[in-house]
Amino acid sequence: MNASHSRSRARGRTFLLVLFCACLFLGAAILLSLRTGPLPAAAKTGTPEIDSARTPPAPAKVETAKVEPLQAQPPPVALLPDTAPAPVGVTPVSDADLDYIAARNLLIPVAGVTADQLRDTFTQARSEGRQHDAIDILALQGTPVLATTDGVVVKLFQSDRGGVTLYELDPSGLYVYYYAHLMRYAEGVAEGKPLRRGEVIAYVGDTGNAGAGNYHLHFAVAKITSPRKWSGGAAINPYPLLARK
What we know:
This protein is of the alpha+beta class. It has two domains: about 10-45; about 95-245, Glucose Permease (Domain IIA), CATH 2.70.70.10. The chain is built from four helices and nine strands; from the N terminus they run αααβββββββββα. The chain is rod-shaped, with a radius of gyration of 56 Å.
């Protein structure tokens, strides 16, 4: 009986020891859970967790725009004054041009000649299919030729057709007054000389293709159509400007 009682007590002590160990293990597990939090999902599923502190994430793929090679560009074209001739049938002379010249109050450029003595020969035909584009003012040989308005002598020239000629540039720089078939220039006349309206600049003659003894002044007005040119501009009829018609 004593032996049976001893075995019962031994089994009781073993049970208590196991229960105590179980309690200790359970307590330790609970304490560990409170300190570290719930296990990560990777641990629950058995998948090894990646340490993000030691392994940086893979960089995102950046789309790179395709860069086209630079194409050689032509150099900029310098803008030049518009010197293209006017289309056929269109004159570059405007009403504003005519109003400006009319306001200059041009003087009849031959001494002693009156408006009623003038003849409009602007559209008369000339040799080689040319139009006159000027008027002829008849006068005796040696009659003084006068500056029709203020200006400057831009060119003194000897030509086959015009003979002894003089080109006067208007103060605006846009118009030229042309005197031809001169006998000679007045004293002191030279290129660059400023002129005053009514100043004697030359004398009536018959040089060039005027014909011997056909003394007259060939007088023309033109609008400059090319930079730095003093001849070959757009002709303007001087007759209505001189005759006030």
